Amino acid sequence: MSETDGTRLENLPRPRNQEDPDFPIVSRLTAALQASGALKGKTIAWHCHLTLLTELAARAVVEAGARLVLSECNPATTQVEAVENLEKMGRVFLGQDSAVQALASKPDILADTGFVLIPTYLSSLPPETGADIMGASEITTSGISKLRAYRGSFAFPVFNINDGQIKSLIENFHGVGDGLLEALKLHDALVPQTRVAVVGYGKVGAGCAHYLKANGARVAVVEIDPVAGLLAHFDGYELATLEQALASSHILVTATGTAGLLGKEHFLQAADGLLIANVGHLNSEVSPQVLESICEHKVEKSNGLTEYHLKVPSPTGEQCGSRRLALLTGGNPCNVALLTGSDAPTMLHLTTEILTWDYIASQCRPEKEKQLPSGITGERSLPPDVETLAARIALDALGYQFYA
Predict the structure, then answer these.
(1) CATH number of 384's domain
(2) CA atoms of 378 and 102, how far apart (whole Å)
(3) Is 380 helix (H, G, I), strand (E, B) or coil?
(4) Residue 87 belongs to what domain range?
(5) Which of 17, 197, 231, 317 could join 245 in a cystine, given CB atoms 3.0 to 4.6 angstroms apart?
(6) Mean pLDDT throughout 301-323?
């Protein structure tokens, strides 16, 4: 199973045929893009989650005069209604070859989720061809890690949206934390004193721990980085090893973005009845194919919950015991697959992403790019002006006109 393989789940879309009247950010984003004019006539290849929120944000890009070509980053988060609506605004490609198909449109800007589109482009063309790309963006923690490990050359800048303040402190912390909470409540999984272990204490993990604790859960944190572990301790959480967490928790939340975090040995030592929920970008973080291979049978529950029944050998190997493990949304990011949590953080990070493309179109022409220092990987920090504009647009949408 690849990182983007999976069955499209029956999501729970809420009606979003019009912009949220409580947070009308898209109309203000559209006005800002039209005033800039930089995106007019540009082609943007966007590898992303194809959801109703993506559709809402895409309207601003199209109304600003840009051409959108979208590719599916995870079939388990794709919503049929969103695809149908997006196809009215641009071209949409699904499946494993979606990134390759999107690149055939000869885009000016690459917008990536999980560092798939960019390396596909670089590996399929001669290095000098990269000069045709004005710039690119990446929005995920796992994607930035892959970007930094990439050993190829870049002829264009790649802007790190994930480490910006808006994405990390609002979407990653509040958006994912709130979305996880709502996803668990759909299954009545959270009651007072539920023992929950959060694996990974980056901004995503920290947000999940915060929201879980605020709703009465007893939260432990699993973290291999000593500094992050120390922060978790002073934030009021007990620290545990992964083995301790598996054996003593009711719910295990994975938030590392690391493929293969869980394997056969972890499933066999987990507590009976453990519920596993992933909020990292990749379903391979929790190795669902391994769980499939060792289960005797499975039961499909509602809202994307699957219960696996395992036979677990005793330490002496003389007899086997039974164990039940539950996996939410096939190991895909549950908040995205179920479209749970507040829309505002997601719309704000999409606004920041789109304004980054506007910056690329206005500032990253070849003659201007020559003036910018070239990093080893091509990575660039998000320009402060982009986040400032995104914040002003958001605050205006929230009713704080004095920031405009």
Answers:
(1) 3.40.50.1480
(2) 22
(3) strand
(4) 25-167+342-403
(5) 197
(6) 80
Structural domains counted in the chain: 2
Q: Which of 337, 358, 374 finishes a domain?
A: 337
Distance separating alpha carbons of residues 3 and 73, to the nearest angstrom: 9
- The single residue listed with the structure tokens 């949590």 is 341
User: If DSSP codes are grouped into helix, strand and coil, which group holds residue 47?
Assistant: strand
pLDDT band at 131 (very low <50, low <70, confident <90, very high): low
12: pLDDT strictly greater than 70: no
pLDDT band at 126 (very low <50, low <70, confident <90, very high): low
Q: Count the alpha carbons within 13 Å of 385 in the hemisphere toward its beta carbon.
A: 6
Is it the case that residue 187 has pLDDT exceeding 70?
Answer: yes
* pLDDT on residue 268: 92
Do both 87 and 162 map to the same domain? Answer: yes
Partners of residue 251 on adjacent β-strands = 196, 275
Q: How many helices (H) and strands (E) does the chain have?
A: 17, 15
Look-up of token digits 């920090």:
381
143, 115 contact by CB (below 8 A) = yes
Say whether both 378 and 317 belong to one domain. Answer: no
- Give the C-alpha separation, 38 to 41, whole Å: 8
**Which H or E element spans position 254?**
strand 251-254
Q: 153 pLDDT band (50/70/90 cuts)?
A: confident
Q: What is the pLDDT of residues 85-110, one digit of tens each?
A: 999 999 999 999 999 999 999 999 99
Helix-helix angle 343-363:52-63, to 10 degrees: 30
Residue type, 102: A
User: Which of 288, 315, 337 is a domain's end point?
Assistant: 337
Q: Mind listing the pLDDT tens digit for each residue in 34-85?
A: 999 999 999 999 999 999 999 999 999 999 999 999 999 999 899 999 999 9
Distance between CA 78 and CA 55 in Å, rounded? 11
Helix (H) or strand (E) holding 135: strand 135-138
Tell me how far apart the alpha carbons of residues 40 and 56 are, in angstroms, rounded to a whole number.
Answer: 19
Task: Assess whether 193 and 287 both reside in one domain.
Answer: yes
- Asked if residue 219 and residue 144 are part of one domain, the reply reads no
Q: Which of 136, 90, 87 is CA-nearest to residue 113? A: 136
Q: Which residues contact 303 (CB under 8 A, 6 or more apart)?
A: 10, 12, 186, 187, 338
Residue 388: inside a domain, yes or no? Answer: yes
Spatial CB neighbours of 294, under 8 Å, sequence gap ≥ 6 = 264, 267, 268, 310
